[in-house]
Design goal:
Largest sheet: none
Structural class: mainly alpha
Number of helices: 4
Distance between the termini: 59 Å
Oligomer: single chain
Radius of gyration: 18 Å
């Protein structure tokens, strides 16, 4: 069980690194680039993998009759948070794609 919990740290740190890369792009003034869309896709993928890993962990604990209420609440909170992050990243990714298309169209018009 602990190996599974430690394994969920890998996507978390990857997502944190990608968020740091996204902040650096925004700081450099390259927020509306294709690289930002790719970074958001990576964050979304990491968040979905967190949801899957913790969901499998919860199912495993259910089959072993080892779910205590406090553990279930913590697992649901983590799953809900990761799911919210993945939805937010997906929405931001689509909005950024649309903004890049509009920006490219405006740049070609002038």
């Amino acid at each position: 069980v602990l190996i599974g919990v430690y394994a969920t740290g890998v996507p978390l740190y990857i997502a944190l690194y990608k968020a740091f890369m996204l902040l650096n792009l925004i700081e450099d003034g390259n927020a509306f680039s294709d690289k930002s869309v790719i970074i958001l896709k990576g964050i979304k993928t990491c968040a979905v993998s967190e949801v899957v890993m913790y969901g499998l962990l919860f199912i495993y604990l259910l089959t072993q009759n080892a779910v205590q209420p406090s553990v279930a609440i913590i697992l649901f909170a983590i799953i809900f948070t990761a799911f919210t992050v993945s939805v937010f990243a997906a929405v931001m990714q689509e909005l950024l794609k649309t903004a890049i298309e509009i920006k490219t169209e405006n740049d070609l018009t002038v």
